[in-house]
Amino acid sequence: MMTDSQPFKHLIQRLTRLEAEQAVRGCMNRYMYLCDNLDVGFNLDDLMVLFTDDAIWEGRGRRYGMSFGRHESNNAIRGMFAKYTQPPAHFETNVHFLTSELIDVNEDAQSAAASWVLLQTSTFSDGKSQLSSARLNVQFRCTEGQWRISHFQTESLFNRPVHTPWDNPADLPVPK
User: Fold this and answer.
1) Domain residue ranges of the chain, discontinuous segments joined by +
2) Could you write out the DSSP letters of every residue in 116-141?
3) pLDDT tens sequence for the chain (176 residues)
4) pTM here?
5) CATH fold of the domain at 7-162
């Protein structure tokens, strides 16, 4: 038998999980925005608050496992990203695009599992460009009222050199 408060309780649980899903999405979008802007002198504090203290960041598979490795703890992840903030600049242009999103917030609305397909367009400081795609599997946990990344995994789907820089400084052709 359902009491009068059960439908209300169920709606609150659903709303809480929807809000958690939105917060997970926001955390991941903030992470990608900051990664787009990694450059010499970048303040890593803004990026590191997106990770739990015991977070893991790892490249998976042959290519990304060797290139990125596995970093266990917020401090170890900071050390990996710090390499991108030292001169000379690594990227001239770097843009991440996310698609094929799946977010599953656990019943308790305190943890979530999510995945995306990533497309990354990069031009490096040496003028070479690359198109990369990866599958991201990311675990999130709500700590101190904030959703944070607890385990980030990236696995290469493909990487392809591009023979011209992504950004061409020529004026855009527009109708006169």
Assistant:
1) 7-162
2) EEEEEEEEETTS-EEEEEEEEEEEEE
3) 556 678 888 899 999 999 999 999 999 999 999 999 999 999 999 999 999 999 999 999 999 999 999 999 999 999 999 999 999 999 999 999 999 999 999 999 999 999 999 999 999 999 999 999 999 999 999 999 999 999 999 999 999 999 888 888 888 888 98
4) 0.91
5) Nuclear Transport Factor 2; Chain: A, (3.10.450)
